[in-house]
Amino acid sequence: MGLTVNDTNFDEIVLSSDKPVVVDFWAEWCGPCKMIGPYIEQIAEEYKDKAIVVKCDVDSSPAIAKRYMIRNIPTVLYFKNGVIADKQVGAAAKSVSAAKLTELL
Predict the structure, then answer these.
(1) First to last CA, the chain
(2) Is residue 4 part of a domain?
(3) Residue 1 lies in a domain
(4) Which of 13, 21, 22, 33 is catalytic?
């Protein structure tokens, strides 16, 4: 998955999108983040025409992590029209994330 967001481009990519956006907050050292990474990439591919799926490294983007009070990772936020519509904290099955995203379409 090539699209990442950070403190500089988050508002432009996530908050200004006319499509639902899934933001995976993660860190390189986080084991559960690595567990969900492959299915986050699958969801990005499966929903590429309907939604935007991005990753945000909490270590390199502390301002965004602080703004959204990301205290545990992985945390996946689901945005619609620039507003948080749903959230998943901790590792969960792909079906959970896909269902949350489908509800926003």
Answers:
(1) 21
(2) no
(3) no
(4) 33
For residue 3, being part of any structural domain is answered with no
pLDDT at 2: 64
Catalytic residue chosen out of the listed positions 14, 21, 22, 30:
30
Q: Residue 69 pLDDT > 90, yes or no?
A: yes
Q: By residue range, what is the domain housing residue 97?
A: 10-104
- Domain count across the chain: 1
CA distance 56 to 62: 10
Q: Does residue 30 surpass a pLDDT of 70?
A: yes
The closest of 50, 67, 65, 34 to 101, measured between CA atoms, is 50
Is 30 one of the catalytic residues? yes
The reply to whether 56 belongs to the active site is no
Number of alpha helices (DSSP H) and beta strands (DSSP E) in the chain: 4, 4
Q: Is residue 5 part of a domain?
A: no
pTM as predicted: 0.94
